[in-house]
Design brief:
By secondary structure, the chain is an alpha+beta fold. It has 3 domains: about 35 residues; about 190 residues, no CATH class; about 100 residues, Thrombin, subunit H. Strands 14-15-18-17-16-19 form a 6-stranded antiparallel beta barrel. The protein has a 4-stranded mixed β-sheet with strand order 7-8-9-10, with no helix packed on it. Strands 11-12-13-20 form a 4-stranded antiparallel β-sheet, with helices on one face. The longest helix is centred in the first third of the chain and has 51 residues. It is elongated and about 135 Å long. The chain starts with 5 loop residues before the first strand and ends with a strand.
């Protein structure tokens, strides 16, 4: 109990009852008559809950940030890779081989070589359209044009019995090329689709000999749309192997870019099932969007079904995705609006009016080539023969 005695406080100078004065470091000060404030258990639990929500939000955003950083890095590296790929294509001894005379049945004929294996083939891109690759599962190609073995990723140029084929193994399309020692490991792989650019007369539809019809193609120029993709990042490499040795094995158990049977990418080099499945370049349709006044916006498109399966649409509708149209123009998705259905993609550059509208004023489906994995780069390479 407090008595009536008061003494001055050395800190504030006020007279306070003797019972409310204490000493600290030799000085007389007030006692705090109020209890020290603290946190209750409920307040601590609420704080932990709020912190957990924040951490979950960061965890959800982090993969997207990492992916965008990877796409940005790949785009920068893809620009420098483009020239290397073009040099590899032009420097391929088999593809650059010229025609040569050979004796056949007592007659000297011109044996086709290199790109002429498809340029001289009247079944390949006869109207100047891009030719989608044939998908095979074993052996070499039997159809004309470009073929891809979906079990190991090897490509073939040509395919008809009259001209033969040229194989481009996946080992030759890895960048950088893996070293024998394993010190250099591949990070990218490239593929292409092709078309002819007619330089002379239109081909004969009927009449004339096969040689006469074929000769109308001999001076045609070829164009390639080359897609460079990052090798799947989820590939598991055993400690006693390297990524390069696994991809270049005689009977590989993985491929550089894998997909399911539905076409969905797996990013693990395997796909689904007992055998790996290589993810090829695909063909789909897009359509321009009309504005509020009914005018077409040539730089805003939607992905069309069923040309692009529903399962694959999310992979086409990605920032940084690249699309090649029928005229050989490469478009990049620079903005994505998922607040509407179907999602609207802003592309740069816009589609040409002739592709987007056809011969009329209403939008039509425009064909584009794409890969479900966002490519590091896509370039158009012209092969003049």
């Amino acid at each position: 109990m407090l008595d009536g005695t008061t003494k001055p406080c050395r800190v504030c100078g006020q007279d306070v009852p003797e019972g409310r004065v204490t000493r600290m470091n030799g000085q007389r000060m007030h006692k705090n008559t109020r209890h020290a404030s603290g946190f209750s258990l409920v307040e601590v639990l609420i704080s932990i809950f709020v912190l957990a929500l924040g951490l979950l939000g960061v965890a959800a955003v982090f993969p997207a940030v990492v992916r965008q950083q990877r796409v940005a890095t790949d785009s920068v590296q893809g620009i420098s890779i483009q020239r290397s790929v073009e040099e590899l294509i032009r420097g391929n001894a088999l593809l650059s081989r010229s025609d040569r005379p050979v004796l056949q049945g007592g007659t000297i004929i011109s044996e086709k070589g290199g790109w002429a294996l498809i340029a001289a083939d009247q079944n390949f891109s006869s109207e100047g359209e891009w030719s989608l690759s044939n998908l095979i599962e074993s052996g070499s190609a039997s159809d004309s044009g470009i073929s891809v073995n979906i079990r190991n990723g090897d490509m073939f140029v040509g395919g008809t019995g009259a001209f033969g084929t040229i194989q481009i193994p996946v080992a030759e399309r890895l960048i950088p090329r893996p070293s024998i020692s394993g010190d250099v490991q591949p990070r990218f792989v490239w593929d292409f689709v092709a078309r002819r650019v007619a330089a002379g007369e239109r081909p004969l539809a009927t009449g004339g000999t096969a040689a006469e019809r074929r000769s109308r193609f001999d001076d045609d120029t070829l164009q390639l749309a080359v897609f460079v993709r990052r090798i799947d990042t989820g590939i598991r490499v055993p400690s006693n192997q390297t990524l390069g040795s696994m991809l270049t094995a005689a009977n590989p158990v993985i491929v550089p870019v894998a997909e399911e049977d539905t076409g969905r990418p797996t990013f693990d080099g395997v796909g689904r099932g007992n055998q790996p499945r290589y993810s090829p370049i695909r063909l789909g349709g897009v359509r321009v969007v009309l504005d509020q006044t009914g005018r077409p916006q040539l730089n805003v498109i939607t992905v069309q079904s069923p040309s692009v399966p529903t399962a694959l649409r999310p992979y086409v509708e990605q920032l940084g995705q690249k699309l090649v149209d029928a005229r050989g123009v490469v478009h990049e998705v620079v903005r994505l609006n998922r607040d509407v259905t179907p999602a609207q993609l802003t592309i740069d550059p816009p589609l040409a009016q002739g592709l987007a509208l056809g011969d009329g004023a209403a939008p039509v489906d425009a064909e584009v080539f794409y890969t479900t994995q966002t490519p590091a780069s896509v370039s158009i390479v012209t092969i003049r023969r």
